[in-house]
Design brief:
CATH superfamily of chain A: Carbon-nitrogen hydrolase
Strand order of the largest sheet of chain A: 5-4-3-2-1-14
Largest interface: A-B, 45 and 45 residues
Distance between the termini of chain A: 34 Å
Number of strands of chain A: 16
Structural class of chain A: alpha/beta
Largest sheet of chain A: 6 strands, mixed
Order of helices and strands of chain A: EHEHHEEEHEEHEHEEEEEEEEH
Oligomer: homodimer
Low-confidence stretches of chain A: none
């Protein structure tokens, strides 16, 4: 069944968890009212990013389940939707702070993913994940989850696709580049390539704004399973925006590229390893 | 040292090897006179592509060294350049016909690469290669070589980059899409991503024209090591064109992306295998 999908660009504020959660709730409500049943929010969307010290990083974290996932569950129930969002997690199982993403459905948290490839100073604030990234069975399909820099690793996309993901959702905080709603940014090329080479749609939800000298790209992108961009921001500025697009019926994944070619079956581990 | 590079778009004609070789010679002469020292030509540029039967495929093949590589060697000597080009090879070591690419320098053939990932009906005409793709030490740097569909396999780019390639050259015949000199085609995204994720420049030289119902994209593309397009066709039509761009000094390859990140060192085989 076609899947109306939202990529939500938000502007989290350091030290304002209540305001950030309220902004996420308002954006999810608007997306749900517009018919979205898969709603993807940025990485660390409840906390902001550029922590000054351990105390700030600690204050940014919350347990899962916790306040954010409870609010999102209520919205998932109201709109019969699935929400994928990033947040700073206080890991009750040990491991301290995590840069996590959750999939939340009408009945609560479906999965927690802890970011495997940490970017920049994240390694000072978060312990890296060390589990295979999840493909989550949800009411809207099998959703593969990664966070931001994970997208730089083709083996990450392939793991999700080869484990049956029908959509890849990447909450992100894409730093260190000029804002690009409409420009032909290389990050767009990377997301399109992940989709084209796996034959699975990719949704990237980046934040906007700046903090302590760091600026984000603001990439809200929905890419179909051939690598075509079907949703991107209408405005080429640095403000929050929700991008909506309808993904075609995702199942079954087809990796045939021609009557003679299959982009999975054509791999040559005998020559190239892996 | 900065490297002036040419990606040559040609229109080979089935059954006209002499005309095709002459067209390649004219294009190389023009690129050499314009200062190019790395000149990349399309896949199967001496033969055309859509063979009707074994007899046509046999007639398309030539040995290496042979007429084409001898002509190209003379030009490489004249311009102190390196030429990377695709041709149908009659494999003297056995294996019959090969879809090959050569690197030719002033002293002759430096390497022969036999395409590992065959596309479409190529499997009916050619035996696949089964050797690790070559990184060729040349007077203009270490050149990694692949052909067309090889670009769809990230482990292929990585093999070349991890073995020290400073430029990746992909003679190509990119089929089954509308012509695109200037449009934002997903094939451009794939080439940019290969460069961005390896931090090595990528040169794609595609053919143009059509044969027996098959049309090529005509993608002549030069991408720097960050994934930025620095050369693409000026004309959005279906005619031969040579694209020139100067790659910055390629050495040393830098895979650091931030003070905390290395796109090679950050791989997590413990989590994702490979």
């Amino acid at each position: 069944m076609p899947l109306t999908t939202a990529s939500v660009r938000l502007h989290p504020r350091l030290g304002d968890p209540a305001g950030n959660l309220a902004a996420s709730v308002a954006a999810i409500e608007a997306a749900g009212e517009a018919g979205a049943r898969l709603i993807v929010l940025p990485e660390l969307c409840t906390s902001g990013y550029c922590f000054a010290d351990d105390a700030e990083a600690d204050a940014a974290c919350q347990p899962i389940p916790g306040p954010a996932t409870e609010a999102w569950t209520a919205l998932a129930r109201r709109f019969d939707a699935v929400i994928v969002a990033g947040l700073a997690e206080r890991d009750a199982d040990g491991g301290g702070r995590r840069n996590s993403a959750v999939a939340v459905g009408p009945d609560g948290v479906l999965a927690v993913y802890r970011k495997v490839h940490l970017w920049g100073r994240e390694c000072e604030w978060f312990a890296p994940g060390d589990e295979t990234p999840p493909v989550v069975v949800t009411p809207v399909g099998r959703i593969g989850i990664g966070v931001c820099y994970d997208l730089w690793f083709p083996e990450f996309w392939r793991s999700l696709a080869d484990h049956g993901a029908e959509v890849l959702a990447f909450p992100s905080n894409l730093t260190d580049a000029p804002p690009i709603a409409t420009a032909d940014h290389v990050y767009t090329a990377v997301a399109r390539t992940a989709a084209h080479l796996t034959r699975v749609p990719v949704v990237v939800a980046d934040r906007c704004g700046s903090e302590r000298g760091t600026t984000w790209v603001g990439l809200a992108l929905i890419v179909d399973g051939e690598g075509g961009v079907i949703g991107r921001p209408a405005r080429d500025d640095d403000s929050p925006e929700t991008v909506l697009a309808t993904l075609p019926d995702p199942a079954p994944r087809t990796t045939d590229l021609s009557p003679w070619n299959d982009v999975v079956g054509d791999r040559r581990p005998d020559v190239l390893g892996g």
